[in-house]
Amino acid sequence: MTYVVTDACIRCKFTDCVEVCPVDCFYEGENMLVINPNECIDCGVCEPECPAEAILPDTESGLEQWLELNAKYSAEWPNLTSKKDPPEDADEMKDEEGKFDKYFSAEPGEGD
């Protein structure tokens, strides 16, 4: 089992999860984070820290596409190991549906 970041993170990019991760397995894209499934130790401390509820265990059904996306982009995007301020409109974007089709960007973030 591993944890995955879903589209609920897009344009919210809260980094509370990064701050508590003991193995630094988060990677930063332009407008979302992903978890490297090979580095995640399944401790679960990140899941309750996410204000957008974007982190889920991969044992939940229907998350295959998110596991693939997390694996792909964690190999391409820079590592993020410290908390950053979220975008100014993060709270407004938190509950929006269909964010992947509307806003996903494959561009990397800044990382640390």
UniProtKB/TrEMBL annotation:
UniProt cofactor(s): [4Fe-4S] cluster; [3Fe-4S] cluster
Coiled coil: none
InterPro entries linked to this entry: 4Fe4S_Fe-S-bd (IPR017896), 4Fe4S_Fe_S_CS (IPR017900), 7Fe_ferredoxin (IPR000813), Fd_C (IPR022569), FdxA (IPR054829), RnfB_subfamily (IPR050294)
PROSITE patterns assigned: 4FE4S_FER_1, 4FE4S_FER_2
Region described as Disordered: spans on this chain: 78-112
Domain 4Fe-4S ferredoxin-type: 1-30, 31-60
Record keywords: 3Fe-4S, 4Fe-4S, Electron transport, Iron, Iron-sulfur, Metal-binding, Repeat, Transport
Function noted in UniProt: Ferredoxins are iron-sulfur proteins that transfer electrons in a wide variety of metabolic reactions.
Protein name: Ferredoxin
Lineage: Bacteria, Pseudomonadati, Pseudomonadota, Alphaproteobacteria, Sphingomonadales
